[in-house]
Amino acid sequence: MKAESAVVVTRSAEETRAFGEKFAQTLRSGSVVLLSGSLGAGKTTLVQGICHGLGVTACANSPTFTLINEYVGTRNGEPLRVYH
């Protein structure tokens, strides 16, 4: 498995969500994405875009005070789980 790294700069929450939606289309089953940033950096906003791009209808919330959030979407008619 090849590890890749990227830095993406967006200028608004809307741009961040839109990037997340596009990025979601590049993910494959079993993909792992590590998000690192300070409080308020936009990690959850990005995950909201990714979830939307993967067909998740639940609202993605920050896992700050929970161990993990699980969302279910679909891709090509197949269930898809997102852990955040």
Care to describe what's here?
The model has no long low-confidence stretch (mean pLDDT 86). This protein has helices at residues 13-24, 43-53; strands at residues 70-75, 78-83. It contains 2 helices and 2 strands, in the order ααββ. Strands 1-2 form a two-stranded antiparallel sheet. The protein starts with 12 loop residues before the first helix and ends with a strand. The chain is an alpha+beta fold and 84 residues long. Helix 1 (13-24) crosses helix 2. The protein has a single domain (13-83), classed as 3-Layer(aba) Sandwich (Rossmann fold), CATH 3.40.50.300.
For this entry, give a set of tags:
2 strands; 84 residues; single chain; Rossmann fold; 2 helices; alpha+beta
What's a quick, concise take on this entry?
With 84 residues, the chain is of the alpha+beta class.
SSE blueprint:
Blueprint lengths: L12 H12 L18 H11 L16 E6 L2 E6 L1
Antiparallel strand pairs: 1-2
Helix pairs in contact: 1-2
